[in-house]
Amino acid sequence: MSNAAMGQHEHLDAVKEMWEVLVDGEDHDDLQQHVLRWVDNACKQQINAGNYDSTVALSDLFDRFHRTFVLGENEPETGENIDITYVFPAQLTTKTASQLLFQHVIDKLVERDVLLYVYDKQRVRSRVAEVTRYFALLRQRFADQSGFEHAPSLTKMVKMDIQSREKPKWGDQGIDLGDKIREILQRASTGEPASEFGSVGRTDWREATNDALTLIYRLCKRRGMTGLASFQGRSLDELYRRAVTERNEERAHVITASTGGGKTEAFLFPILAYSLTANHDNIRVGGVDAVLAYPRKDLCDNQFERIVEYLYEIEQIIAADDELPYHSLPITVALQHGSASQSEISCPVDGCDGGMPTDEMVCDKDPAHKADFARSDKGATADIIVVTPDTLHRRLMDHRGYDQFWKHASPPKFVVLDEVHVYTNQYGMHVANVMRRFQAAMREVDPDQQPNLVASSATISNAEQFTEAIFGAPSAREITPRGKNEDIPWKETSKEFRKESEIEEIGWEYLVFIKATDPREVQVPQGEAKYKPRREWGPEDFEETNVTNLSSMIQVAFTMYHTILKQESDEGQLKNKILGFVDSIDSVKRLGDYIQDAESGRGVEGQELFTLRTPDAFLRDEDEPGTNPDCPKHQFRSNAASHERAVCEPLPPNKNLNPCPVYEAGECWWTMTDELDLEPMDVYLHKSGRTETPDGTRVEDDNWDLMVTTSALEVGFDHPGIIGTFQYRAPMNIPGFVQRKGRGGRDPDDQPISVVVLGSRPEDAFYFHHENLLSDPDERYLEINLDEENRFVRTEHLVSAIFDYLNVTDNETADEIYRRLDIEELDEKFTHEQDEIANWLRKAFPMVPEEQITAVIDEIGDYINLTQAPLTPASVGGGDIQEFWEAARFPRGTRQADLEESLDDLKFKRRLFQEIAAGNLDLENTSNK
Predict the structure, then answer these.
(1) Longest Cα pair distance anywhere in the chain, in angstroms?
(2) Do residues 262 and 248 touch, judged by C-beta distance below 8 A?
(3) N or C terminus of the chain: which is more exposed, having fewer CB within 10 Å?
(4) Using CA atoms, how far apart are residues 844 and 441, in angstroms rounded to an integer?
């Protein structure tokens, strides 16, 4: 072996030795991530300055690497001292070892496909910067058009941003759940049992609290969650102790943490613990323990599934341990919204990939898998009820709500409003009034019981103020990871502070803002006309096409899917899905149709638009035909007669030495190398609670690559396979956008990308030039407002509260009034109990002026009188005179099927009259039917 070869071998051994030390110390990932972040930041600066061919010289990168990791200098940008443990082999100089280690890091990043060598292997570009380049140069291509030179441009400008991702510390960095439970039990033992436990001896009560928290500990241990986040521990302490002990102060709580930061467990574990306590040896018989309200049906289904999963695991723990005091699972859960019985959740049994239709709660793949503790029928009562605010609004007035809530001795102990930032303006005031009415009913059932009022959100800055407003509470306390709102400059953030902080950085996310070109008509030359001057074109030499903002979104959508990095998590979960948001149901359908057309090439193989950009240089064998018609395949190194004349090697071509017009025009997507990149994606649509393909076929499977939706999936849709999101046009509000981009990249190791396509409207231009409002919004832009002075919304709920009063105090009469429109009964109640009704309204709405309450009562009285007027004057016709309200209601005993048939008949007649009025029917030729 020559000395040179021996030296090279020693160097390889030295690199291996250094890398093993880094792997053992778990520092290899940190080293790679720091270098990648440097490249990303450098590319970002160039892109935002208008240079979309951004590159970083390896020499400059090595200089920074050497100074930071070898010489121990602080990071010039952050002031941070990065502590990485490694050992340089004694036989190498420090500079040589540093160079070898640096080159190994670069090779690892290239191997991971997050970094690309550019032009001559002396420069690099991050993959996200390369994809952003495609966005910047994007053209409108058509399946029947082979050339790109005359294809209209779709992008005016592009900006890129990079934001840190944070999460609360848990696991080894969290708190010990066993210690926290012992602390809670010790502190609870000094208090008095809550009012609903008043008949229980203190010994039995303490035993119940101990057994309940022990079972929660067992549940967490089974799920590998014994190291909870500190704020989750504080929430369990505060909310559970407040539930089981007598408390004097009235206070609501609001839980805030980052998206995916564990907010649900922060309020759900105290609820489960309370239910286990209340149902311990029948301490508390009957009644609802908790009402969990979610703003949308999809989110209700999602959270119902999560609760079923937790309850199933508790059931398994109880079944496997005879020493536990529970003979069976003592907790039930019910799903309550308009289409609850038509939903489906995943089977909770480990290893089963079946589904459970909510109307039966039996697995469709194995009937032995059942969830007898869960139900979804409208009249179902349960310990935990998952509901929308609109359904809760109806339950306050109807017989189902009476059976669920008000006929029991104790009202619900927990009322939760999750994703509370959704409740803005008028809708927020609607929900706030529902909360006031619900609390009034709870106080009527048991004036001594103090409910736990809990809000939750990841995107709200005025958390305590808003929570007080929406619950009508005198005060509110925020439970949040400490350190999140600390206003400390990064350079002053010492390692000691970061250890004390309850949050940690887990990586970063990319945001790309694309300003689409203005809508216009473009003439695209056809055939030989592309070689002629425009003045010589005849009518047959060109086709006219419209370039719109939607055109940009269509092309961006499939550019995004085919070029971003798809990866696999440590658990084997493929990260390859994109969730796209638009702000109208009509746009969901149109955008989904167009994307599917572009992807499928209308069913003609080789006509898919993404194939017009494939880098055939290194994807195709010599004898295999390429799919990119613009790729000069004969000039690639594998095909060129002389390597000296080769345009491309297996890295992007050098524009100075061997220019390639296709790549320079952005029509060769160099990152399209994975097998998934080369296959058409499957597009699904989600709207109005329904998932379907663009042709309208309803689907329940998970076989989508891109899902177009509205705000319906803005919250609570936590699919582990989502790695990217897009937003078409300016979002409706900033908190909503923060939630949308938070749908992607749920795992700590993910580096999700969010793309915003902004059109030609003034608000689009505003957000493009102030993109920081979306990428890193100031807290004042995350404040949520209520339309508290809206008299119209308030009046509607004052009227509804009268029916709440009737339902809670006299359900049998209320049922006749509410369901059968018995005005005589209403008149009787209203006449004799008007003072009680007025007092009810005052207690439910203490801030409402007395004159408004009086005005509402007077209006109801006038309405009652009007409905008792005769349907026709007494002098007209013969027979009995019928009052209006009697003619308007359906007879007792009317079946639901008969009612629907009557309604259908009325709808048919209405449509018939409309057609006649419009002159669309020939009455002479219309049959009697």
Answers:
(1) 124
(2) no
(3) C
(4) 8
